[in-house]
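Side project, low priority. Logging it here so it doesn't get lost.
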Amino acid sequence: MKVATAAYPLDWFEDWSAYEDKQRAWVAEAAGAGADLLVFPEYGAMELASLGGGNVAGDVTGSIRAVSERVEAMNGLHARLAAEFGVHILGGSAPVEVGGRVVNRAHLFAPSGAAGHQDKQIMTRFERDDWGVEGGGPLRVFDTALGKLGILICYDSEFPLLARTLAEAGAEILLVPSCTEALEGYWRVRIGAMARALECQCVSVMASLVGDQPRIYAVEENTGMGGVFGPPDRGFPPSGVLAEGELNRPGWTYAEIDPAAIADVRADGHVLNMTHWTEQAERLPHIETIALA
């Protein structure tokens, strides 16, 4: 299978058709390059706030409501594009109002018309303190024609037990849509994505928001690039980097992923991180403190 992961810039739209044209162009480009799976970044849907006008887009609560109200239409568009181009699409995540709470939700669409979503599990300080976004529903594994996929939205990739839970449930590929303001934020998520690929002997696919959009609250500045990572073991590059884009340069980054290589390295790699994970627990109760002063 071939994956396309986005370094995606936010735009300002005067009407819905302009947004629709942009989505179609991005999907058509990746599909035309032979991609089977397209990954858009965390908060990629925030550009929909522009349709509410400047005062709404720049407001902490107005921006959330403007996007949340348009998520259903966005999902319909992505479902149609997935079917038309014969691809799987992880759409840009959005703040969604659910039962009086706001969650950070990403939707996955199959060309068959099937769809599902994953909510972010652990919120950053900004999401908690400034934006009021909360952790949503449970972790999910998506059993697709391309294999079993898990989704760790940005900060979630920095927590090993989340990825381990997905891997134990069968996930072979972890999708990591991200939104990071500064370079250090990008590297935190990238290091997390690479570490999870190492620990779980799987492939992680990272997408990023890029560029500035000062008129939209919470996504004024964005840093990152696309990347696809695997375990540094046989069947994969020594660095673990299958592909990476160019920092802050918009566009798709492509990589070929062989699910058989994931199964092979888990069964008979030079090391067996996935198998040996449980051996950590038996070592932990025996910690000793040695005074050398």
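Brief comment: The chain has a mean pLDDT of 97.
Revisit when time allows.
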